[in-house]
Amino acid sequence: MPNSPSDTPRRITVRRKGPLLVEGPVEVELEDGTTVRSDRFRVALCTCRRSRRYPWCDTSHRDRS
């Protein structure tokens, strides 16, 4: 059952000038309603929108720090 007391919360790590690191697997719903999924144990979500693989971070933020 979702949101039950036995559910382990997902950990999200916030990095200054970097991506959000999320313990996976994850599903991300985009603005247009499409859903993308990653089964990796940890994913980096782009917060600067410079990534060519958005919503996944490709470290493009490093080019304009």
Q: Termini distance?
A: 43 Å
Q: Which structural class do you get from the secondary structure elements?
A: mainly beta
Low-confidence stretches: none
User: What is the strand tally?
Assistant: 5
Protein name: CDGSH iron-sulfur domain-containing protein
Pfam families: zf-CDGSH
Domain Iron-binding zinc finger CDGSH type: 23-65
Organism: Streptomyces bullii
Compact description:
This is CDGSH iron-sulfur domain-containing protein. The chain has no helices and 5 strands. With 65 residues, it is mainly beta.
Structure description:
The chain has 65 residues and is mostly beta strands. Helix content is 0%, strand content 29%. The strands form two sheets. Strands 1-2-5 form a three-stranded antiparallel sheet, with no helix packed on it. Strand 1 (12-14) and strand 2 form a beta hairpin. The chain starts with 11 loop residues before the first strand and ends in a 20-residue tail after the last strand.
